[in-house]
Design brief:
The chain is built from 8 helices and 9 strands. By secondary structure, the protein is an alpha/beta fold. The protein has one domain: Rossmann fold (3-Layer(aba) Sandwich). Helix 3 packs across helix 5. Bound molecules: zinc ion (ZN).
Length: 251
């Protein structure tokens, strides 16, 4: 696994002693480190879908515990005092869904962490980061167009709130990291001291030499914004699930 973004390192690339993936070597992310509880597949994927699309709020508790475990991986590395900022939805998306799943997960996770890591001072700051643009479905866009599409999509409402603060960005899924990069960039420009990232699930990257797959999940279209060089694709799931596609609104 990449020490920076948590992506799987490509074993087919031959013996490499770099602890970083190709993307992080070529274009280092603005965040210090990204951690996740597990892979975005199987039951994890079903649970995230239940929360987001079936609005099954009880799922947030179990998933929040998993997110807490992901955040706990940062113990001893990340600062003991951090602002926890869920990746915001654009207001039209928020109105459509009725809630921000990242915020629900963050709230649950902090509840668990207060007990398991009482020494950690984590403060939820859910309205600090704003999403200025609704990033529409990126299907049909080139990787470069996707990068541009998500760039500048975030803004900090009150920079004095984040100045010299260490920030933990929280989201449900990290795919290419384009969203996390854009959000971290906005926070650093507003004066944040450091930005860390924790997500529930990580969709793994596959290179063009890696396993082939045909995955067109509308849900990940936003995250498919791609911070990666051309020729690298991202694997959000090992299988296509057409039944799930039907109930997913596009971003
Ligand atoms: Zn990496």
């Amino acid at each position: 696994m990449c020490a920076r973004c948590g992506d799987a390192l490509n074993a087919l690339a031959g013996p490499s002693f770099s602890p970083l993936c190709r993307v992080c070597r070529m274009a280092p992310p603005p965040f210090v480190k990204a951690v996740a509880y597990g892979a975005y597949q199987g039951r994890m994927k079903e649970a995230v879908h239940a929360l987001k699309y079936d609005r099954l709020h009880p799922a947030a508790r179990g998933l929040g515990r998993m997110l807490a475990e992901a955040i706990a991986k940062l113990a001893g590395q990340a600062p003991a005092e951090m602002l926890v900022i869920p990746i915001p939805l654009h207001r039209t998306k928020l109105a459509q869904r009725g809630f921000n799943q990242a915020r629900s997960l963050a709230r649950e996770a902090l509840g668990f962490l207060r007990k398991s890591h009482p020494e950690w001072r984590l403060t939820l700051a859910a309205s600090t980061l704003m999403r200025l643009r609704a990033t529409e479905s990126q299907a049909g866009l080139t990787p470069r167009q996707r990068r541009l599409n998500v760039r500048g999509a975030f803004s900090v409402s009150d920079p004095s709130k984040v100045t010299m603060q260490n920030v933990l960005l929280v989201d449900d899924i990290l795919t290419t990291g384009a969203t996390a990069r854009a959000a971290a960039q906005a926070l650093l420009e507003a004066g944040a001291a450091s930005v860390w990232v924790a997500t529930l699930a990580r969709a793994q990257l596959v290179s063009r030499f890696g396993r082939r797959f045909a995955h067109q999940d509308a849900e990940e279209s936003e995250e498919f914004a791609g911070a990666a060089p051309d020729g690298i694709r991202y694997e959000a799931s090992l299988s296509t699930e057409s039944s799930n596609l039907q109930k997913q609104p596009s971003f």
